[in-house]
Every structure is written in C-alpha cells, then in structure tokens.
Design a protein that fits this description.
Layout lengths: L2 E4 L10 H15 L4 E4 L9 H8 L4 E8 L5 E9 L9 E5 L1 H4 L15 H13 L3 E5 L10 H6 L3 E3 L18 E3 L8 E6 L11 H5 L8 H18 L10 H12 L2 E4 H8 L2 H6 L3 E9 L8 H12 L2 E9 L10 E4 H5 L2 H6 L1 H14 L2
Parallel strand pairs: 1-2, 1-11, 5-6, 6-9, 9-10, 11-12, 12-13
Antiparallel strand pairs: 3-4, 4-5, 7-8
Length: 367
C-alpha cells in the first residue's frame, strides 16, 4: 500500500490548500484505489495559514470574532485555538492577517487609509481568552500602515504634535510626533510567520517593493509612505534595516517591537503541524502552488517540502497551476502542470479542482 502525504500550499485566489489536497487525493485514488493518505495542507504565513493548522491539528477550534476590517467596517472572521501543550498551557492562538486586514477584504485599493486595526483586535481577543502562545501569519496585507493599527488595537497611542491621535493607515504616519506604549498589552510567546526578508524602508522596503500592489503607484507616493514608516521606526526605536520588518506593510516591524520573533513561514508551519514526521512514514509527498517559477526555490512551500522529502528518502511530486521554463524541478520525481493538462491557463483557473484531480491521476500513473 502506498502512503502519500498531501501538503500543497493554496493556489492563490482559486482554491485553498485544504481543497487542493482533497482534489489530489481523488485523482490519485482513481488510478490507485488502495493508497493511504495523510493530509498536511501547508501555508507560509499568508492565505490559508489558519486552515492549514485547523486541518492538521486534532482538537483545534475556530473562535469567531468581529473586527474592523481594513476599511474600518466590521467583518466576521475567526482565529484558531490549538489545544494546550507542555510549553503552551493556555493553548496557542493562530491568527492570520489575511482574514482580518488582508487585501482580499478590500472592495478597492486604499493605499493611504487601509490599516491593521482588525488584526490587532483579533490578537486582543486571543489574549482575552488566555492563550500562552500566539502564532501569526502576516501574508496578503492590504495596507502600509507599519502595523500602527495593530499596535493601537493592543493599547498603543500614536499622537501628533498637538497630542491628538493621528489618522489611521499610512496617511497618519508622517504626522506622528510621539508614541505612548504605556497601555500596550504584554506579549506572550509570539511567533511571526513570513517568507519576506525585506527591511522596513529604502529601495527594498515595504513601500518601494510592496506599496504598488496596494495602490502606491507614483514615486511621490512611495517616497512619502517610506518617510512615514521611517518616522514610525525612529519613534518606536526599531532598526528599519532589520530583515523582515518590511513584511505586511511594516507590520513585521511592529510585531518585533511588541516582542514577536520573525520566523520563516513554511518551516515554522511544518514544525507546528508535524510535517517532517508525517513525511518520514510516507512513500510519496505531493506538494504544489499556483505558480511554480524561478522564485519558488527561495523558501517557498514546494521547494521546502521537497528538501524535507529528500532528507527522508521519500519521493517528492509537484502539482502546480503552471510550471514556468525557469523553474527548477530537479528535486521532484514527477510534476504536473494544471495549465498543460487543461490546455490553457484560463481553463485551469476556471476549474482548479477538476484539473487538480487530473494532476493527481497523472502523478499516480507516473509513480
């Protein structure tokens, strides 16, 4: 009997990691009905982080919460409570920025006014519950507020020269004249999942690199937002050149100030869901993502999982929405492109579950 670990990332905007794993299993079973499957859907701190933990950790519970989304309007979302462990007697909260302050929650880009207040409110709800550890995923951010909204929701105050609160979002950063952290809630053990190593400011900083995705389209806008982030860093005593502080529009830096420890997303998720142990007992591990390209070897989920498989002497296979010509697939014994199977990228995007089933069958035939 073939034992297969299914550990795809989400195919962004088309299908979750959980549903991708189900589709791959269905396709493989059509060819090999006797196979045994272990589901370990993956994430790297972005979209699908909470779902990955929920699928992999027995006894986890979704905890509903209403927060102010990136526009300021209330949204109903949830955080995940993991059962108590020896080093987290009060349990662990898993919270992703994507579902509280993420770009997918915006009806239109709001580069100056979107903020991370809702993310901070969800963290606050977990603290109110009494958790001992907080694991946060900070991918898919919709703002460039430097995490000021998050810190404000946790008790910090950002004041202008007259002592009044500044405007929310990136709009208010340059006006901050003083920061009052006396009311900031005490941080428990906080792990910050991110695959971003950019500093807070400068040509590789949050504004310059990620700002255009969030609507900062002109050089003048990027420069102004960058200066605002620099002002915030100076007042918080944060080194703006520290790698990772530019993640999520600067929220990575705010979490460091609060006491969080930045960690490579894929590796941290894998450790917390016991992925290495699952792979060690398997014959095959199948991973995947929407686009496997030349950037995918830099700490992304598929390449990370392939390296775990190689270390364990287990065959690694890849299913991706597309596999570009510059992608290195040498760590995989077989790969399948949904675009190739469907005949076009549009067809693959329209029916990802169908073509993931086809990919699962194709990989089974090539096993």
């Amino acid at each position: 009997m073939t034992r297969i670990v299914l550990a795809p990332d989400s195919f962004k905007g088309t299908i979750t990691a959980v549903d991708a794993a189900v589709a791959l299993q269905t396709g493989w079973t059509d060819v090999d009905p006797g196979a045994e499957f272990v589901h370990r859907p993956m994430a790297d701190g972005g979209e699908g982080t909470v779902a990955a933990f929920a699928a992999a950790v027995p006894g986890s519970r979704r905890m509903p919460v209403t927060v102010e989304g990136p526009t300021g309007a209330d949204i109903d979302t949830s955080w995940l409570l993991l059962p108590p462990t020896g080093d987290a007697a009060g349990g662990t909260a898993v919270i992703d920025l994507a579902s509280t302050s993420g770009i997918e929650l915006l009806d239109q880009l709001r580069p100056w006014d979107a903020d991370t207040t809702g993310f901070g409110q969800a963290i606050g709800a977990a603290l109110d519950h009494g958790v001992s550890r907080v694991v946060v995923g900070i991918g898919s951010s919709g703002s460039t507020d430097g995490g000021a909204g998050m810190l404000s929701a946790l008790g910090a105050r950002f004041l202008d020269a007259a002592g009044a609160p500044v405007a929310r979002g990136a709009r208010g950063l340059a006006d901050i004249a003083s920061v009052d952290l006396s009311g900031l809630r005490t941080a428990p053990d906080v792990r910050v999942l991110t695959d971003v190593t950019n500093p807070l400011v400068g040509p590789r900083g949050a504004s310059a690199v990620f700002g255009p995705q969030k609507g900062l389209n002109s050089v003048a806008d990027i420069t102004l937002a960058d200066r605002g982030l620099g002002n915030l860093a100076a007042l918080l005593g944060l080194d703006p050149d520290q790698p990772g502080t530019g993640a999520a529009g600067g929220t990575g830096g705010a979490l460091v100030v609060w006491g969080g420890v930045l960690a490579p997303g894929a590796a941290e998720v894998a450790e917390l869901i016991g992925l290495a142990d699952a792979i060690a007992d398997a014959d095959v591990v199948i991973t995947g993502e929407g686009s496997y390209d030349g950037q995918s070897g830099d700490g992304k989920v598929p390449s990370f999982i392939a390296s775990l498989a190689v270390d364990a002497g287990v065959r690694a296979m890849l299913a991706a929405g597309r596999i570009t010509a510059d992608a290195d697939t040498s760590l995989f014994t077989a790969s399948a492109s949904l675009t190739d199977l469907a005949g076009s990228s549009d067809a693959a995007l329209a029916e990802p579950a169908r073509w993931l089933r086809a990919a699962g069958a194709e990989l089974a035939r090539r096993s």
